[in-house]
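Below is a filled-in request sheet from our internal design queue. Each sheet records the structural input a requester submitted and the sequence that came back. We keep these sheets so that new team members can see what a complete request looks like end to end.

REQUESTER: design group, bay 2
PRIORITY: normal
MODE: inverse folding
CHAIN LENGTH: 70
BACKBONE (tokenized):
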């Protein structure tokens, strides 16, 4: 049995392209480009010349931005 701190097997890691993430957030891919340049968006992976976002990082980024009402 794996422990809660075990790394997620690579076969279970979900990766999003900038286009997929932009669609999810209803923003332009150029916004993601700018965020990467300014290092203010979610973490990304540069793999073989492609930019990819791990879904777990996207979820964590969204959680940090979550606000509740008064």
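RETURNED SEQUENCE:
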């Amino acid at each position: 049995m794996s422990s809660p701190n075990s790394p997620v097997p690579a076969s279970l890691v979900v990766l999003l392209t900038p286009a997929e993430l932009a669609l999810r957030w209803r923003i332009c891919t150029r916004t993601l480009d700018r965020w990467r340049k300014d290092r203010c968006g979610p973490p990304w992976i540069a793999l073989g010349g492609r930019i990819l976002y791990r879904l777990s990082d996207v979820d964590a980024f969204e959680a940090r931005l979550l606000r509740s009402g008064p």
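SHEET NOTES:
- The mean pLDDT is 91.
- Residues 13-63 form a domain with the Molybdopterin biosynthesis moea protein, domain 2 fold (CATH 3.90.105).
FILED BY: M.R.
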